[in-house]
Amino acid sequence: MSDPLFILAPPRSYTSVVCGMIGQHPEMLGLPEINLFAGDDYQHLSRWYRIRPRFQHGLLRAIAELGLGEQNEANIEAARHWLEENPKLETKAIYQDLANWAAPRSLVDKSPIYVYDAFALDRIDRACPRARYLHLLRHPRGTCESIQALRREHSNNTNFPPLDPETSWLKPHLRILEFLETIPTYRKIRIRGEDLLEKPACYLPQIVDWLGLDSSPASIEPMFHPERSPFACNGPPNARFGNDPGFLNEPRLRPYRAPALSLEGPMSWDSRISFSNTLKHYALFFGYD
Amino acid sequence: MLNNYPEPQSPPSDSTHGKALGIDDFREVGRGCFNASIRTSQAMIWFGDALIVGTGRRPLGFLGRYAARNKFATDREGSEIGFVGRVEEQGKDGAQVWRFDPYKLDWSLVYESPLGVGRDGKERARDRSIRASTVFQGPSDDHPCLYLGVGSLERQVVILRSPDGINYAECTEKGLGLSGDADVPSLRCLCSHGGRVYTSPTGKNLDRGMLDDNLTDFPMIFATNDPWRGHWEMVSEPGFGDPTNLSVNEIASFNGYLYAATLNPQHGFQVWKTDARGASPYRWKKIIDCGAWRGPASSVPASLFAYRNALYLGSGIQRQGRDGHDRYGPFPGELIRIHPDDSWDLVVGDTRPTPHGLKRPISGLAAGFGDLFTHAFWRMSEYDGYLYLGTSDWRFLPTYLRNRDELSPACLAYLKSETEKYIKGSFSLWCSADGIRWHPVTRTGFGGNPNNYGIRELTSSPVGLFVAPTATQPRTGGGGLEIWWGNKKNVKII
Questions:
Q1: Which member of B1, B357, B408 has the closest CB to residue A178?
Q2: Which of A94, A279, B11, B140: CA 20 to 30 A from A13?
Q3: Does the beta-carbon distance from A184 to B328 stay under 8 Å?
Q4: Distance (Å) from the alpha carbon of B437 to chain A's nearest alpha carbon
Q5: Gap from B115 CA to chain A (nearest CA, Å)
C-alpha cells in the first residue's frame, strides 16, 4: 500500500479536479473534502460544522461510501450517528478507519480547510508520518477572483468584508511553505495547477512516478477521468456537497489553457485592493508573473 | 531534514585516482603579500608552471557613494582593530596580479593597477578586480598567452596579455571596443572555444564606486579571434532576446559547443547552447529555463564546469542588499548537470516535476547539500579525477532576517536561532568521484578566519588544488585574501 497523499492549497486552486485525477489511479482513492484534521477529535471538529454545516458532508459521504458500501440517505445518517455517539473519537483514528476501508488503495485528501487551521498540518504529520504532500499552486489573481465569484454565487450576504488576497492566497501558501520545510524533499513536490491541467499527459505520470505507483498506460488512463470518482457528483439529499460546487457540476477533464493573468493592477471587485509587494515576490517564486 | 548532510569523513577513494583531498591535505600559502585592500580572487589560473592569482579589492562604495572613510575599522563585534587610512591612501590600493611558484614557494607581484585621476579629480587606482582569465593563442600571439579581464572602479574594462605570467601588457581595445561612454566596467569570464575567445560584460558603475557587480547594460556575448587587437563582435542577441536576462553570468566550452548561462532574477537562470559556427549572431538554443524549473530561487548560475562528459551548473541567488530576492529565503543553492544530448539531471536539490520529467536529486541530497543556509554553489574544479565544489554561506550576512513580517514567529525564531549557531568563517568544500556521490572535505572553512565566507576560486594544477576563500573585509578590516594549497602528502614538490 502506498503512502497517503495530501494536496495542500487554498480553496479554488484546482484541488478538486487534481484530487479526482490522482484518486482515479488504481492504487489511490480520492476523498471528498473530509476536513478531518481541522480538529483533534470529532467534538473538536464539530465547531466547524456549527459555522458551516456543509463541512461535514464530505466526511459523511466518505464513511458511507467506504465504510458502509454506498452513499445513500440511510448510510449518511448511520455515519452521522456513529460520529455523534463517539465525540471523543480522535480524528486520526477516523482517518485510519477510512484508510483501512479503502485498502489496498491509498487515500488522497485535498481538504482546503487545512491551510487555514493553525494546527491542521501538524495533526496530519503526527497522524500520517509517511504522508506525501503535493503543494498545488494557482495564480493569485485566478485564485482570488474565483473565491470572490464563489462568494457572490453562494452567499446571500452581500455585506461580507472584501476578500483580502493576503488572507486568501498569501497566508495559506506561507503556512504550507513553513510546514513543508520540515518535510524531507522526497515526500513533497510543488506544482502549478495551470501546468498540470494544460499538460496532464506530461505531469500526471510524474506525480505517479513520485508516488511510486504503477505507471503503465492502464494505470495512467483512468486518471484522465475524474468524473468516475464516487465523489464527483452530488451526494444524497442529507449530504449533497463535500466538494467544490463547480467540480460537482462538471467533473470531466476538459482542454485547458491558462489565462494570461498579471500580478499588477487592482482586483476586479475593489479597485482599492491590489497585491502587496510581498505577495508578488512569493507569486514570482512560484513562477507567476 | 534540515542540516541532514553527512559528517566529514575520511576522503573517498577511487580505484583509478586514489584518495581525494582531505582537509588535512591543505595548508595556507599566501596571506600578507597582497595589498591592504585585497579581499578576494575571482581569477586564479595555472599558467607557465605557476599559479597566477588575479585579485580584487572591495568596492569603493555602493550606489556611487564613496565608502572608505577616515576611521578605525571594526570587527564583527565592533572592536577596533586598526586604522583604515585616509580615503586617498586606500583608493590607491587597486587590483593586483601575483604569481606563486610552488616549486620555490615564492610569491611575486607581477601586475599592479596603474594610478589615474578619478572623475572627482583625485588620484586613485584604476583597477578594482581581475575577474576573468583564460589561456589562448590568436594570430597576434607567438604561443599560448594568458589573458586577464581587469575590472575598473569607474572606467572601462581592459584586457591584459601575458606571454609568460610575469610580464603584462594591455590589449588594444578597452571596453570591448564599445563607445567611450558605454558602461562596461568588467568582464564576467573569458572562455576559449574553437579558435576564439568569448566573454560577456558585467557590472555597472555609477560615476564612482559601484552600482551593481553582477548586472550589465550589455547582457550579451562578445567574441574575437585576436584579443590582443580586439575586434570584438557580438555573437548573441541582448539577453538572448529575453529582457529578463540581466547578464550572461557563465560561459563554458563543452563537447564541441559553447554554453552560456544567464542571470535572471524574475524567472530563474537560463542555459543556452550554440555550435558557434556561421555568421554572427550565432544560432542559440535554450536548453534550460526558469532556474531548471525551480524559479527565481535559482536566479544566478554561479558556476559552470565540464566534468566527465557532463556540464555541471551550480546555482545561487544574488545579494542585492536592498529589496532583492535575498531578502526572502534563505534559498540554498542547487547543482544540475547537462548531458551532451541536452538532457539533464538534478544532482543536488529539491524534487520537482518539470517539462522534462520528474527530477529527483540523483545524489540523494537536498538543496545546499541539505544545508538551508548555503548561499551558492560558487566554484567547481577537477583535480586528480575528482570534482570539487566550493560553497558560500549565507549566515554571515543574514539578509533573510530583515523585515520578515510575513513569516510566523516560530519560523522567524528558527531562522534566527540557526543563524546564531553560525561559526564565523564557515563554508564548505565538497568532492565527488562521479558527480553523484558527494563527500564533504570541510564544512567549517579553512583555518578558522572569521572573515571568510565562501570559496570564490578553485584552481587545479599539476601540483595540487588551490583554494581562494573570499573575505568580507580586506586586511585593513582584519580579513584579506588567503590562498590554500591542497596536495597529497606523497606528492613531492621539487
A1: B408
A2: A94
A3: no
A4: 17
A5: 43
pLDDT tens for each residue of B293-332: 999 999 999 999 999 999 999 999 987 655 678 888 899 9
Residue written as grid cell 579558435: B195
Q: What's the whole-number mean pLDDT along residues B363-367?
A: 96
- The per-residue b/e assignment along B401-422, b for 16 or more CB within 10 angstroms, e otherwise, is eeebebbeeebbebbeebbeee
Task: Tell me if A140 sits within 8 A of A279, measured CB to CB.
Answer: yes
CA dihedral B348, B350, B355, B357 (to 10 degrees): 70
- Residue B278 sits at φ, ψ, to 5 deg, of 85, -170
The shortest C-alpha distance from A205 to chain B (Å) reads: 9
B321 vs B467: CA distance, rounded Å: 27
- Does residue B494 belong to the interface with chain A, where contact is any CB pair within 8 Å? no
Closest CA of chain A from B67, distance in Å: 30
Q: Which of residues 179-198 of A touch B (CB under 8 A)?
A: 181-186, 188-191, 195
What pLDDT, on the 0 to 100 scale, is given for residue A192? 98
ipTM over 0.90: yes
In this predicted model, which residue has the larger pLDDT, B472 or A31?
Answer: A31
Residues in chain A closer than 8 A to B1 (CB atoms): 181-185
pLDDT band, residue B6 (cuts 50/70/90): very low
Of B105-109, B177-181, B384-388, B482-486, give the lowest mean pLDDT range: B177-181
Q: Which residue of B has its CA nearest to A187?
A: B351
With 0-12 / 13-18 / 19 or more C-beta atoms within 10 angstroms meaning exposed / middle / buried, residue B245 is buried
Q: Which of B411, B414, B418 to mutate to test the interface with A (most CBs of A within 10 A)?
A: B411
Picking from B353, B358, B366, the nearest residue to A185 by CB comes out as B366
- For B191-204, what is each residue's pLDDT tens digit? 999 999 999 999 88
Cβ of B409 under 8 Å from any chain A Cβ?
Answer: no
Span A16-22, average pLDDT: 98
- Give the tens place of pLDDT for each residue, B125-138: 889 999 999 999 99
Q: Grid coordinates representing B233?
A: 563582435
Interface check for A74 against chain B (CB to CB < 8 A): the answer is: no
> Around Cβ B119, how many Cβ atoms within 10 Å?
11
pTM (two decimals): 0.93
- pLDDT tens-digit profile of A108-154? 999 999 999 889 999 999 999 999 999 999 999 999 999 888 887 76
Where does residue A139 rank: exposed (0-12), middle (13-18), buried (19+ CB within 10 A)?
buried
User: B355 vs A202: CB contact, 8 Å cut-off?
Assistant: yes
Judged by a CB distance cut-off of 8 A, whether residue B39 touches chain A is: no
The phi, psi pair for B314, rounded to 5°, reads -105, 135
Total residue count of chain B as it appears in this document: 494
Residue B321 amino acid letter: G
- Predicted local distance difference test score (pLDDT) of residue B69: 33
Q: Is the pLDDT of residue B3 over 80?
A: no
High-pLDDT (> 70) share of chain A, %? 97
**Hey, is the C-beta of B357 within 8 angstroms of any chain A C-beta?**
yes
**Chain B residues close to A195, C-beta within 8 Å:** 353
- Residue whose C-alpha is closest to residue B98's, from B24, B190, B162, B193: B162
Do A284 and B366 make contact, defined as CB atoms within 8 angstroms?
Answer: no
A174 CB neighbours in chain B (<8 A) are 406-408
